[in-house]
Amino acid sequence: MTGNDRDRENEALAQAAVEALVGQLDLAPKPGLPDPRDLTARATRRDHSSLRWSARALYPGLMAMAAAARRTGEPSAGLRAELGAIGRSTEHTVGLAGGGHRGALWTLGLLVAAAALEPGAGPNRTTALAKAIAAHPDRRAPRRASRGSTVSARYGAAGARGEAKAGFPHVRRALNALTTARSQGTPEPLARLDALLTVMCTLQDTHLLYTAGPRGLRHVQAGARGVLEAGGTATPPGTEALSTLDTELTSRAWTPSGSAPLLAGALFLDRLSP
How many angstroms separate the Cα of 213 from the Cα of each of 114, 133, 205, 273? Predict the structure, then answer.
């Protein structure tokens, strides 16, 4: 493979990841999450247009992560350190473009690197490689505790790091839900919403734990499960249950922000499928 071929493959992976993130952003109605209804940050305090713009700022960093993985050739401690350095630089760039997407950068960055390590691998192999990368500590990372790590320690939640170290089980769960919904004839946007709700049902969302506590997290999980048990978003009872959940989360300012990056990860793996 020539250098130009490698560059094109790295560009393709980065583009697929950004398009997956934008696809997640454009999905509506997402209960409690930014979507196209929030053109003026009415409900979620996140302007949808700004989030779409800043999502594009992830592209150079994701391409650099793919290149680093392809050059390294294995899920080593060295690769983990390089991905961490690229990630921190990319966070700064995204901040200048409007901010957001820290969770998406973590999820998509690991998955892009894993996909570059073994082109053509299926979702299970790609998430296994991402797990192997995440198993290494980032020794150059700032030593200050993040809000997510503090909440994880307090409540015993896996958090974003735990999700990666487990091989992104919720990404795989979302991808399976997406495939199942499609096989049942569910329209694509509704299949994606069902996949998001599948994640929300069981994810120990550290942002929700911080803002709503364990009781609030359980309430959101039960609400998401209720939509699916009503038949999913493609049915009238499911649509009604989704609307109720969305209204409630918006009124309480509860944002299940941990679920959205994992759906983006599933959409990325879906884009890589033949």
Answer: 34, 31, 10, 37
Percent of the chain with pLDDT over 70: 93
Please give the full DSSP string across 39-69, using - where no structure is assigned: TT-TTTSS-HHHHHHHHHTTHHHHHHHHHHH
Global confidence as pTM: 0.92
Query: How many CA atoms lie less than 13 Å away from 10 in the CB half-sphere?
Result: 21
Q: Which CATH architecture has domain 3-138+156-272?
A: Orthogonal Bundle (1.10)
Burial of 211 (0-12, 13-18, 19+ CB in 10 A): middle
Write the pLDDT tens digit of every residue in 90-115.
998 888 877 788 899 999 999 999 99
Domain map (residue ranges) of the chain: 3-138+156-272
Q: Three-state DSSP class for 143? A: coil
Burial class (CB in 10 A: 0-12, 13-18, 19+), 146: middle
Instruction: Quote the tokens at residue 39.
Output: 């053109």
Q: 142-187: per-residue pLDDT in tens?
A: 777 677 778 777 877 888 899 999 999 999 999 999 999 999 999 9
- Determine the Cα–Cα distance for residues 260 and 129; give it in Å rounded to an integer: 22
Residue reference for tokens 């994701």? 62
